[in-house]
Amino acid sequence: MKTNIYKTATTFLIVQSVLMVILLNNNYMKDYGYLQSILSEWIELLLGLIILLLNLVAVVIAWRLYRSGIEAEELKTRALKYNHMLTQYQIYREHHHDLKNHLTVVLGLLTQEKFPELREYLQVYLSTVNDALLKTNSGLDELDILLSAKIQAAKRQKTEVLLTILGTILCRRKNISNLVAAIGNLLDNALEAVKELEPSQRKVTWSIRKDPIDYIFEFSNPLLLSKQTTKWDFFEEGFSTKGRDRGHGLSITRRLIKKMEGTITVDTAKGQFKVIIEIPRHKLEG
Question: Which member of 35, 124, 186, 232 has the greatest number of CB atoms within 10 A?
Fold first, then answer.
């Protein structure tokens, strides 16, 4: 059975603290001659040796905790990558599953020599297939797959997506999970917000760019609030435009961005709900 390093560290800390308290208390009582045994010096020596040994073991445990943290980050990033690979595979599989049916239709149109209808059918089909292909190029595979999956989700709910990517992203492995999780929350929020609108009004804008200092991510959609709300309200735990205790995306996103020493702001001017994230390039790239 695998040792739980966190429980082990806690146990060692408690035992070490208790022994140190006993040793200090014994020294205090020795000054006044209380409860002293003829073997008190040997007891103090034994306690000191045990505490020294525990300190040495604590160094090993601290190293194990450090390695465990690194492994946890690697596992989280790997799980995120596999999840996005699965999403992309499902997109391709959906069209592969229908390929036989499409070929049957094509063969039928060829047999009947309905070439104009065949050309139109193939154009529509190729357009549909191209929409499913991964066309984003942010420089980060995990982010590309996430954007592709969310664009497909937007198409299914008849939402128009305007995506602009200016420049490629360089990101150290330890930051990928936080970055993708933060952006994923904002994309989900935007797509959910426009569901309440008429299909003709469902439009979201996503922008990724960089300047010499920061990476800048902007996500906007029509503002749906019926009353005035301050920009700080959006970051409160549980705040939602659909009622209290239903929204957690922005508060979670804010914590993730802070881990990368970035900033997140909300702009509600011109009837748009715009979230702007700025992350220092040297922090994201490492």
Answer: 186
Confirm if 250 and 282 have CB atoms less than 8 A apart: no
pTM: 0.57
Q: What is the pLDDT of residues 15-63, one digit of tens each?
A: 777 777 766 666 655 665 555 555 566 766 777 777 777 777 777 777 8
Pairing outcome for strands 160-166 and 203-210: parallel
Level-2 CATH architecture, domain 136-285: 2-Layer Sandwich (3.30)
